[in-house]
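Input for the complex:
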Amino acid sequence: MKMWSGRFRQPLDPEFEHWQRSFEFDRRLLKYELAASAAHARALKNAGVLLADELISILEGLQKIGEQTDPNSFAVKDNEAEDVHHYVETQLVSLIGEIGYKLHSGRSRNEQIATDLRLYVRAAIDQLRSELSELCTAFVGRAEQAGTAAMPAYTHLQHAEPVLVAHWLLAYVEMFLRDADRLAECRARTNICPLGSGAVAGATLPLDRTFMAQELEFASPTANSIDATSDRDFALEFVNALSVLALHLSRWAEEMILFASHEFGFMHLPEAYSTGSSAMPQKMNPDLLELVRGKTGRTIGCATALMVTIKGLPLAYNKDLQETQQPLFDAAETMMNMLPLVAGFMKAVELDFERMGEAAQSGFMNAWAAATYLVNRGVPSRLAHEQVGKAVKLCLEKNCDLNGLTLRELHELNPAFDERFYECLKLTSVLAMHDVIGGTAPDRVRRAIAETKKKIDSLREEVHAHA
Ligand code: ARG
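Predicted:
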């Protein structure tokens, strides 16, 4: 039986009827629909609308639906359900008889879908934060393994200064930890309960909303029924947070693709995460990385779709809101499937420290250190910059590095140069010189690794607390 056919004189156009359904995708919400329905049933009993034995058979029926339905495998196409709410009602009635219809007393699908989606987003956030903690652990593991290996850092994709490989890896961990924080903040705003908001004006029965919120482990009931039934901010925020995470992953993927190219040769692709070419026998392609980059576009597309769908919708519920579900699910599931693969790739990729180290020694990346040497001898920074710039020009003419200049040549630029200058040009000196919080001096990086591990531990503890 339909949930709403009483006032209709004509049946629906069959194609329209089919087209307006959402069961094909909202069946993902079954678990949450059942939990929310159980909370509602208990509130109905407390309000005197259900008898004790009616409550028991409804709860048993709901449990059975959960047990007998695998939301991923059952035949959706053959199912007559309009949406997941309708599915539960029809199943319940077929299991326990007409009493099943009592479950819908005093509630509306508008509050149900808002509740189910919040439960879905909350669970997705918990899973993603757990996956992020694993990803961060994989990056930190590689950072520890890299020890004091160096590589070039780039600005404008030009050689800038040498850094520790570990320092570069930790940069990504910082981004991922911020992503985990953003998700936690989104979780706090998601974790409020629309149940009892009715269709728009609030439930028509005296339901204990605080009780229902507690049953579902929400922090509190929502404050306004009009807002609660039409708000999708939590989905917007969530998918926007995923877009930022995807952007970070995309930057990482792009760097890795470059660094794995023949020209850079900083790393060798793990065969387990690469593919070949059907035409060129020698090829090994960075498909995982390219797909990570590609799925970023898809995720941003989901965020855009959500925003454009909601733009200009009058309050409160409108069926347009059904269209927010697929981009939400798509962005969440894309990310949930991707993060473990990125962690696996990161553990498997072979970094070529020798090649990175060679590159870290070339391209005048010690020039700023050379200018600092003069600054430490009282030379004004602008002049030191100019003089070392001239030294670089001379090197380019002579085809040598800064340490290939003689003291005599250096003295023509500034008499403050002495023997100790050559020491300060060495890679180890240049690295050690960046001895500030957040800098690449090996000692700082060692401490940063320890700090980062602590942050990952507390992320993991937070995730466990929600599990
Ligand atoms: N499938 C619907 C959705 O996702 C459920 C809410 C239907 N509400 C209604 N008033 N037609 O939005």
